[in-house]
Each structure stands twice: as C-alpha cells, then as structure tokens.
Amino acid sequence: MNIFTHKTWVLGFVLLGLIGCGKNSGEVTGTVKGRLTLDGKPAAAGCVVVCQHVKRGLSAGAKVDPDGSFQILMQDGPSIVAGDYKVLIQPPDFKMSHEEAMKLQAANKFPKLDDSVVPKKYRSYETAKLFMIVNQGSNKFDIAMESK
Length: 148
Description:
Layout: E1 3-5, H1 6-18, E2 29-38, E3 41-42, E4 48-53, E5 59-63, E6 69-71, E7 80-81, E8 83-90, E9 95-97, H2 98-106, H3 125-128, E10 130-134, E11 137-140, E12 143-145
Parallel strand pairs: 2-11, 2-12
Antiparallel strand pairs: 1-9, 2-3, 2-6, 2-7, 4-5, 4-8, 8-10
C-alpha cells in the first residue's frame, strides 16, 4: 500500500498546475524568501505555502523549515514570474492511503485538520486574503498568522 501525505497532494497539485504553464524566456522574474509565524512564533515545520499568480494561474510553493523560513519555488527553481499572487497555507502532512486520498479528493473532503497548527481561515485563497507582489530581483514576504 502506498502512503501519501497531504503535503504530497498539495505539492502535486501545484506541480500539475505548472505543467505547460511555465515561464517564458526573457520574462521578468524575482526570488521570494520569507518567514511564516503563528502568534509571533515560527510556524510548524512542514507547513506548505501555496501561491497562484492572479492573472496567469501559475503556481508556486514552499515547504516551511523548523525556524519558520521558506523560499518560494516554481517548477524550474527559485525564479518566480513577477506579478501579483494569492497565497494560502496548508498544515504539515498527515498520512493516508492512496485509495483514501483519491476518494477524499473526488468528494472534495479531507479530514478535519488541527486549527492550532494552521488556522482554517489560512487554508483557502478566499478566506486567507493573503497577497504577495513579486518584483524583479529579491523579494521578502513574511506571513504572520493569528490563531484568533
């Protein structure tokens, strides 16, 4: 039995969104590093920052390190297409079988997740209301989540 994690599914969907939708040569790009916190403390290691270009639908993402730091990556590395992105945060992985994950995905239902790690409002673009602007060169994007 194959074991998949929620993180694997999230990153898999990010990568699927990138296929055929990559950067064009000569396009303006930047790099993005930041820090994710919850109530002023580093967020749990393994959280996933997921970003989607508002106009083009390009996806990018990052896995959060134990100190809360992250670097956003696209399919071909750390150069991110410049522009506006909407952002959501997913909690660290939880394990389930491939079959169970497929059923949950088809029904658009995943198990209830612990809000103490990533509050529910940060797990969707609509409720997170997080936006990132990527300019040419180096960019810093810190995310300060609040549990209340």
